[in-house]
Amino acid sequence: MNIKKASEITKVPASTIRYYEKEHIIPYVDRNDSGIRDFDEHLIRRINFAKTMRAAGMEIDALKKYIYLFDKVKDSESDQLQLLKQQKEIMEEKRDDIQAAIDHLNYKIDHFNDHMQATENELRDLEKVHKNKP
């Protein structure tokens, strides 16, 4: 199948698929006699794997390392597992940062009338004083 069909099946843009090939995230894609990429089920699975790992927050460099270990290094399961654990820790940190930001916004929303409006009014008053200075 061509790249358009592979893109439709995986819901990954053709430009991303080409990037994955260029970066060796997916193996080299054979071309047909016309020079058009010819995708098979194996490549579709690799694209879907990359898509899933990216959606899980794995950075491109980490994904490339994981793919390298999977494809090239014999007995690399422990290294692959370690990489997955590191990626999980990174995602948990990001989740915690996002949760802290959400908590902060919830505080601001919950205290808008008794805190935020008073603070904003003070800032407006300061702006008025500042504008009236020579």
From TrEMBL:
Pfam families: MerR_1 (PF13411). Residues 1-69 form the HTH merR-type domain. Residues 74-129 form a coiled coil. SUPFAM superfamilies: Putative DNA-binding domain. Keywords: Coiled coil, DNA-binding. It comes from the Bacteria. InterPro entries: DNA-bd_dom_put_sf, MerR-type_HTH_dom, MerR_fam. This is MerR family transcriptional regulator.
